[in-house]
Amino acid sequence: MDDIIVTVIIAAAVVLLLFLYCRRKRSRTVSAGSPTEAEERRLIKEVKEKTVTVTKRKIMFAETQRTASLFELFKKTNVQEVAKEIVSLDEVSAIMHKAGLEDCNLIFGIDYTGSNYLQGKKTFGGKCLHDINDRGLNPYQSVIGTLGETLEPFDSDGAIPAFGFGDAYTKDHSVFSLRPEEIPAGFKEVLEIYNQITPKIRLGGPTNFAPLINRAIEIVKATNAYHILVIVADGQVTNERATTEAIVEASNYPLSIITVGVGDGPWDTMEEFDEKLPVRKFDNFHFVDYAKVTQGVDNPSASFAIHALKEIPDQYKAIKRLNLL
What we know:
GO terms for molecular function: ubiquitin-protein transferase activity. It comes from Candidula unifasciata. By secondary structure, this protein is of the alpha/beta class. It contains 13 helices and six strands. It folds into two domains: about 35 residues; about 280 residues, von Willebrand factor, type A domain (Rossmann fold), CATH 3.40.50.410.
């Protein structure tokens, strides 16, 4: 009986000592301080960078017979025929990589001009193009999601600056950051921020791409990294001279510009604007009519992605050849 009591006392003492040790260790951890916000952001960034690296490697080594045949089709025929064969955004990414694209960073520019109220009569059920609901994506959400997912494997740092322009405050003078405190991490976060702030924005006008392009040039100069500026707009450029000058200036830097026309159009003026741009160091500007390349096709997202990005590999090669990086 005495042995049992002694054993119980010893066991209780051991449990008490373990409890005190764990509590002391925990108090030391707490007193040392929890990770700062900067450290948390750094850790999150590292995880995201590793994820992007893994995804990139998957694409690089996904050398299938289908990828090779799609790439050959991409080289030899018009992009409409290629779009009919592509079934996923992964295939678009694989084609871009095989065509020579290695690394890129994204910048998004969102048009908040008042014409968004009127430009969805034919192509968006009469709703404002910025309408946000649970029944489906609006054109801006679709463009961000499609190009973000397609180019995410190539993004070297995961950061995607996103700006608005043409609202009642900035008008055609400047741009505003969708998230002023820090750069969004990944296209999904860009979408989240877009969904949060868009209902609060007062639409304005007119349309001028120059301030946005100049801001993108500043980002490229600061990072010395290749960027693709995606301008999503519902109307024609109203200040052609300033926009043209900005596009010409942008050709001195590793920057490609894709303008996506959303809504009813007509887009004849924008197509003419693209064709009559003056000679630059390289052809850095491409326009695509979103409704035209997504309606009546089996895979709208893949069709849009390949149409929007078709000139990117050649532009990237030109940038490297000109030693702009």
